[in-house]
Each structure stands twice: as C-alpha cells, then as structure tokens.
Fold these 3 entries.
Entry 1:
Amino acid sequence: MINKEDIAMIKGKLDETSSKEDIAMIKGKLDETSSKEDIAMIKGKLDETSSKEDIAMIKGKLDETSSKEDIAMIKGKLDETSSKEDIAMIKGKLDETSSKEDIAMIKGKLDETSSKEDIAMIKGKLDETSSKEDIAMIKGKLDETSK
C-alpha cells in the first residue's frame, strides 16, 4: 500500500529536506487554516502536557519579556477583576507574611508620606473613636509615663 507521503514524494511535493509541517500538510493533518498550536504540535514544540504558558507563547501572547502579571493572567490566576493585592502577590511584592501596612500601601491607602496616625489606623491601633490621648501617643507626644 502506497501512503500519501510516498505519492507526494513521487509528485515532487516532498523530499528528504521537507519539514514536519510539509509532511503533516500532505497527510492532511495541517492546512492553511491550522492554528499556531496545531503547527507547534506537529513541530514537536507542544503536546498535551504543555502548560498554558507554553501555548500562550506559541500563540504569540507571551514571550520572554512578558511580565509576571501577563503570565499569571494566562495561567488563570489573574484577570481584569483581580485586586491590587492579587497583582502585588503575583509580582512578588506581597505574600502571606506581608503586614497590614504593606497591603495598605499596595491598595494605595498608605505611602511614604503617610502620617503615624494613618499607619496606626491601618494597623488597627486607631480608629475614628480614638481619644486625643491615643492619637498623641501614636504621634509620640505621650508615653505611658505621661500624666
């Protein structure tokens, strides 16, 4: 039985220099409508064990310059509804050991210009019911020896 490759070789459509895609095209496994993933699979660059990143890289959605967020988005760990904390966590700026201040800074609630009261409020040491003395203590104007 003569196979399609043999016939293609006879017809001059295939020779020993032909690429895997050429052969796959002859075999009917690839045509001009085939996706980049199909071609990559034929080329041996993708298989059923390939990660979402691998596939995204083939599709041209990811490359070596892609940010951690891009990769996380491909992995399904981030999307347009993700919080700033989620994104910061992906970027490696936050993890489960991060302080409330770190999280507040990511959320845009604190920055390097924030007052001690702001920080104390984030830490849960002050709220809108705090007395003036509490606030003064935070500001360093009072300590436990003050009358």
Note: The CA atoms of residues 44 and 71 lie 22 Å apart.
Entry 2:
Amino acid sequence: MASTASATAVLARRSFCSASPCARLAVSLGSAQRSSSCAASNCRRSFVSWSWPRVAVASRSVPRGNFIFLSENVASVRGIHGAQAGRRGAAVMASSSSSSASPVGTIVSEPSTPVDNSSAGDSVEPLTWRASIDFKGIRENKEAIAANIINRKSTGDVELVVELYEQSVRLSMEVDKLRAERNAVASAMKGKLEQAKRQELITQGKELKERLAGLEVSLAQLSDKLQREGQRIPNMTHPSVPIGSEDVATVRKQVGEKPVFTFPVKTHVDLGQDLDLLDFESAAEVSGNKFYYLKNEAVLLEMALINWTLSELIKRGFTPLTTPDLVRSSVVEKCGFQPRGQNTQVYSVEDTDLCLAGTAEIPVGGMYMDSMLTEASLPLRIVAFSHCFRTEAGAAGAATRG
C-alpha cells in the first residue's frame, strides 16, 4: 500500500494527446493506449482529476485530458489500472468547453522495456467491438506514428497495420469484383435462354459463389486482425509534451514542502502495525498476498478523507456518483483496457461478457458512450467513488507491500 503522495506522483506523469486514429473509444479514460502494462503503486485510495475539452462519442475522436497534479512528460507507457485488486478509489472528472478535439492522454512511468498485453501464446478472443479507425490516415502518417510509438514505449506495429490494411483493400476489391460478376450472372439468368446457355450460367454462378464464400471468410479474418492491430496503435502525443525521463518533465504545480525529519522515519507498514491500524497476515489468509485489513482509526480516517474530498468537489460544482462494480467487456475495451488474455489486468466473470471495474472512469465513461454531447452542455464535472478490482501483475511495491 503506497502513500497518497506517491500515487499522486505516478498519476502526475501524464501526456496530452492529439487526435487518435481510434475514433470510437467511447470515452477513453485512464489508459489511452491499447497495449499498456500495469505497474502503478498499490495506492489504496486514488482521487483522480481530469479535464475534458470534448467527450469522445460515436465517430468522434477521443478528448484531451489532463491531471491537475504535478508534472507532465512522456517517458514510457504505463496504465493507471495496475494496483491492488479490490481497492476502492474515486475518479474526479471535469470537462471544458474548449473546441479542441484530442484524445485522453496516457499516464506514463519508466519501465525498462516495453510491455505487451497480448502475447503470441494467448488464445484469440472474439472481437467485442470495432473502433472507427482511420487506417488510411495511419498509412499516410506512418512515420510520425512510428516515432510516437517509440516515444511512448508502446508495442503497436504501424508497419503491420499498414500491410494488413493494404491487403484488406486489395481483397475487398476482389470480393467486390466477384459480387459484381455473380450479380451479372443472376441478372442474365432472368432472361429467356437456351438450355445449354442456362446450364453454363448455373455452373458459372456456383463457381463464383464458392470462390466468393472463401474470399469473404478470408476478408473477415483479415478484417479482425487489422482491427486488433489497429487498436494497439496508441494515441498521438501532444507536441507540447516533453519526451524523455523525469529530468525533462514540466512541473505544473507543487504543493507544500517535503518534510525533513530529525529522527529515523518509519514506513507506513511499521506505523500501521505499531498503531494497530493494519492487518496484513489475516488478509493474506483470507484473500491472498498484498491484501490487508484497515482497523480502528485508519477506518475512520479513510472515511473522513473520502467524505471531505467529495464535499470539497461538490462545492466546486461536481456531481457525485457511485458506479456499478460490473461492466461489459466491450465497455472496458473501449476505454483502452485489455479485458481478456493472459496478461490482462482485469477480472472477468466466467461465462459472461462482464468484468469487474478496475477504476471508476470505466463506468463513468460508459455513461456517455454512443451519445452526442453538445458544447452547450459543457462543462461536465463528475466525481465518482468506487471499488477498484485489479489483478496483481508484476512485482511493483512487493518489497513494501504497496
């Protein structure tokens, strides 16, 4: 369990993004990239603030967002969604009436190597939705997109996307040609024909039907593969975002001074156990590693902080929400997360299309998907409090139990 301050530092490293090739992300919250890995600090409570110049809907691009915390830079891609399973947190969102339409950016950290959420050995899950991706635009801007993938340490393959797109275009043209020939044969058979000619057209029609059926299957498979690879292309980073490590990060705001102690500093684990506020051992027996019980004054402190935060934001015009714990897999995927597969950070409910929500942004984003928000309806200000169910991928925070 990390302190709120350390979690804030992770959330502050945030990139602004310009228009995404993936236009139908509903509202992409928490993770604009499609192939991020989670290694965020195991902060148990997280109040996250966003700014939305425009909400992504239907065939619109995803909006730009920014955290109101400390800094912004692009070092590498990490997801907001890596931390303790079953924790609770709050997502605070605000919209702006700005006319710019840019996608939500990505929270960034510094992994040593890029991480892919879909390994070659994973079973292929059926597509739950299709994004309106501008593949022609990707082809025309592949150099810039390739550079953006490197800067964000993502795993998208723009060359593969372009190759699949060109194959798809050629195969679509061939399918259209066969359909036209089949229709011409069908039209010809409506007329008065000699038996030999009619039999010839029947044979020709059967051959065209068989060839067309095979090509249509190939086209559908190719289209699915193109869609999967296209969803792995990350949103473009805004030109104002520094590229590199924390040394080139832009500090947006600094609150308070770092305290200097004249005595040996205890960890939150030591303090919590000394004051009988935490119980890791019982939680490990009940739920497994990295879970805990809060006890005594820690429970009251948690509730007080939640209520204080909600109260302060309500004063500023935010609408409070509690959100469903279960969401459809398609909604999770539209928000940029990988709901299935070996390396997913999402708990899925077996034999259903439901997942446990890893962050409140997902069900909040789902409230506005497939809808049009007029400029007159902005700004939208929402604060949502929820449980956050996330798998324990990676060893981040293992040494300090969060």
Note: Residues 158-231 form one domain.
Entry 3:
Amino acid sequence: MKKGIILAAVMSVFLIGEAQAGGPITVAPASGTSSAWASGDISLSPEGGTCGSFTRTEMITKIETNVAYWTDVSGISLTIILDTADITDDVTSCNYTDYYVDSSDDAGLTDSINPVIFDDDAEIVAELFGSGNQYVVLGFAGPDGFTSNYETMVDGQAFFNCRCLSGNPNGDCPGGITFSEDDLNFTVTHEIGHLIGLDHTQANQALAEAGCNDAVAGDCDDIPTMYPQSVDPADQISPARDDEVAILSLYGLATMNAASCTVTGSLTDARGRPLRCMDVQATTSNTADTITYVSGSNAVYTDSDSDGYSDDDGECTSSCGAFTLRGLSPSKTYTVRARPVDADWISGSSVGPCVHGQLTGVQVETLATITSGTCVAGATSAQGTISTSSCGGDISAASGCTGTTGDFDGDGDTECCSGDAAGVDGSSTLVRALTDDEDQSVEVQAGVTLARALLGTPLDNILAAATCSTSSSSSTSSSGCSFVKNTFSSQGSWVSIFLVLISLGGLYFHRKKKSCS
C-alpha cells in the first residue's frame, strides 16, 4: 500500500490538524491547504466478524454500496477499495486494541491498515465512551495519521456499533430502542465521509428542522449527507450538491472548476476586522442548489495553546475572513448571504473553525447577487472585501460603551461591540465558551443532549437505568448517568451519536485496559 512510503513523516505527526466545515475536516496550519488522501486512493480493511444479523459478507457488500455514494460523484477522482484479507479476526473488546489508534497506542499508524470494525455487542463503544453510551453511539470514524505538514492523510479508522440494530440477537437494548438498516447505511456513508476528509455542513438547516417530511420519500433529498444530524437517512444518504462540491474540492477540483464558476471574498465586521466563522451560503429558489463555506475555514493559523483548534485569540494569522464558494452553475442566479452558525453546532457537532462556541452579535446579511452574466464557467467572480453590519467581537449593553455601537445582531436594539473575531487578536467572541476540562466531557454529552431532544423521556430512562463509568478526577451527571471526563487527548475521531452525528474533531480517547481470557 502507498502509505508505507511516507510512514517516517507520519510518525513525527500525531496531532490532528484543525477541523473545518462545509468542506474539509482538516486544514494544514502553515498553508491553509485542505487535507486529503494522496492520489484519492484509499484502502479500507473490514474485520472478520458480524454486525448484528448481518454477516461479514453482507457488511462488505453494504460498505461497498454505501461508499459508492462518494466515489460515484460525477467528476471525482477517488478510489476506495476493500481489502478483505487484512483483518480476518472477529474484533471484540478483547482484541480491538490490535487495530485501534489512539494517543496511548499509535502502532496502527505503521501497519498500512485502515480498519473498519463492527462492534457487535457495543462493548468497544462502552469501553471508549463509558457504559450507557452503547445505546446511543452508532459509530465513529476519521483520519488519524498525516504527513508532517498535514496536507496529506495517510491513516484512518472506522467503528460501527451494531448492538441496537433491528434483528440483532444480542441486542436487548433498554426501552426497546432499535436502529434500522437505513440508519446503519446512512451512518456508514456519513462516517466514511469524515474518513475521506469531509466535515459537517449547515446547508438547508431550515429544511432539516421543519421543511421536509421524512414520511414522504425524496422530500428530504436536499439535506446534505454531512449535515450534523440525521433527519431522514433514506433520503439523506445521497450526497446533496453541497456534499458534492465539498468532496470535489478535495478529489476533482480541476474538473469541477472547468464546468462551474467560483465566488470569492473576505468578510469584515462593522469595524473592518476579519469576520471568521460566518456561514456563507449561495442559494437559489431551489434548495437543491445550496452551496456553503464557513469564512476562514482555509485560514493560515497557529495552535498556540495546543488544544487542536484555532478559535482562540491570536491564533488565526491570515485569510481569517476569506470565503470560497465553488461549483456554482453558470446558468443560474445565486444570492450570497452570510449567516451565523447555529449555536448548538459546537464541540463534537461543530460546523466551521469555531469549535468551542459560535459567534455572538452576528446576523443574516445579503452579500451579493451572482447572475449568469457574472458567473462564467472556469472563471472566478471576486467580490473583494465585504464589510458586514455584524460585530465580530463581544456585544453588550450600549450604556458606557467604549467600542462601537450599533444593531449588530439584528434585534432592533443598539448594542456595544468590542473585541475581535474568532482567532484574531482581541477578546473572545464565542458563546457557550468552554474550559478545556469542560470541553473534554461535553463531546459525548453534546450528542446525548441532542439525542434527548429527539427522543425525550425514553432516552432519559435508558441512560438513567444504565451503569455508567466514573472518573477518579471528576465527572458530570446527565440523567443519573456519570460520564467520564479527562479521558481525552488531542487526536481526531468522529462519532455518530444516535440520530445526531457528532464529529469529535481534535480528540481521541484513552482507553481502559481490559483483561480477556
């Protein structure tokens, strides 16, 4: 396999680059280049066991079918092959550490194997995430090895939880909770999307929240596969245009650019400072056309506090407010708008370079109209620097303001704006800001919280009845269930928590050693 020729470079780099959204999951800090697999050639090694009622042969077929949603995108140069001879073992909680890569065991970076593990009884999930999570975690996947400059991915892994799948004879999940085959198929496609380099997107959020009917086949087709939440897995499994643009930007950029137009620009706040973490969207009257890019996603940055992210003060050094919208059709008219990223999309379900929180004092603004006359195939429509009415810093009461006053959040009231945009020199701009300690525990809990919003009391009862892990250092309780804190290190992994899809960007788990006879 090709990875063997660059292992020396991989061994010197174990920390993951920054997670981004509406496109690449990692970006090289020194260049702002999106990370991708070399030559678009990826080999996956499914294990030798079963997944609920599905045999290994059936799971191999299922993986082949579901990864094809990515490799069949028109114009793509991406090959994913399954090497069925690499792992013939039935991987369980007793031997998964032979294949799993984390900060305490990085041997898997040198074995030229990208494992796909079927956690039939969910004991691996329980061991990694804490007991109780085996009922809500569907899977996790992502790249875990890079070349020294982070521009090339060289190793990855995927784990899928089969315990609560309908028909699993070993299921017996509390409360009668089950996942369907559609849920499994969609989870495979979404998580493999992370492994090949894609992050979450907020495209068509209004449609996801209220506009489509999951009981009507095809009504939710325009919700992206990489949306952080599963709305209708049967429809959502097919990549939306936003998904296609994201993957073609990694594995088919020249072909896409030749047939479409590109819109570029750079956002500043009301005081002329770079405005990072705004969701820039190109839309038409048809939701199928929506394309997004979070400003500053491909910025050059440093990670001065080594937390795996660049949303702290002073860490973004250039292109902090820049955006690039690719894949626009020359025959259509687009409205380009800047929108805030939903405050719920933080930590594991983050959208954009802001991970610890999202911006305050920002509002929806129209930036430009791109017509067929200004959108020419193979060309770029450069919008230059666009000044917005949003405050890229902290907003507070206008009384006694020493900064700039205005209606920065669009609520009709006058506020005071101070500080700078995320990652740029100045004060914090984030809401729901977390300390490092809090951030470590919220990764799993964020998914449980969002799952609870979907399931309500049944999930509360499940978690309350579960026997959960505790930490000797500290823990936090949710529905009578204590979740482990301080068990993470700065590595990258992505996890689907129940019907909410969580990407644990920048984190890995320290596992507990288990003795098996």
Note: The domain at 259-340+360-418 is CATH 2.60.40.1120 (Immunoglobulin-like).
